What does this fold into?
Amino acid sequence: MEMQKVSAQTIFSACQQMLGLQTLQQATGATHACAWVDENGLVGLVREDVGRHNAMDKLIGALASQGRSGGFVITTSRASYEMVQKVAMAGFDLLVAISAPTGLAVRIAESMHITLLGFVRDQQLVAYSHADRIT
It folds into this structure.
């Protein structure tokens, strides 16, 4: 199965949208967030928590309960191997992180055919796996 291509501009736009939807972060300055971006590049769900893995779990749970699919996931934290695995198990093939991924996350993303992006900020990004998906 060929992965759908996503433009870097769509990714930058989604990250910017997410900032405005992080109400706990705006109030406290101390939370992580994970967001689901639909096929049109619109942020459809955001979940926040003081723990980055908790934010991801909340998002994956909400997506499953609402039957949402397609699109991609953004995290405001480092991308760990567990996050890559969770994204893959939920049926997504693109994980965007504003910080660095771990080395193991990169290796698992490569083997699971997940496009993993890091340092997505200031209109720049680093593609760590399956970069051919980003246009």
Q: What stands out?
A: The domain at 9-130 is CATH 3.40.140.10 (Cytidine Deaminase; domain 2). The chain is about 40% helix and 25% strand.
